[in-house]
Specification:
mainly beta
């Protein structure tokens, strides 16, 4: 994920199905780790986008 951020990505999600965790990567910020989130927001990068994780995690 760090490579994506270095190359211009501003938001990344690393979804681990085994542990049901999501690591949220943002440009120039610490990694945020969520446990079993119901949804993920596109924040200000993808306004209005919501990923429903009900059937994924």
């Amino acid at each position: 994920m760090q490579e994506y951020l270095v190359n211009g990505s501003r938001l990344g999600w690393l979804i681990d199905l085994e542990t049901k965790t999501v690591e949220i990567y943002r440009h120039n910020q610490d990694i945020e780790i969520l446990q079993s989130p119901a949804t993920l927001s596109g924040e200000d990068i993808l306004p209005g986008f919501v990923l429903n994780l009900k059937y994924i995690c």
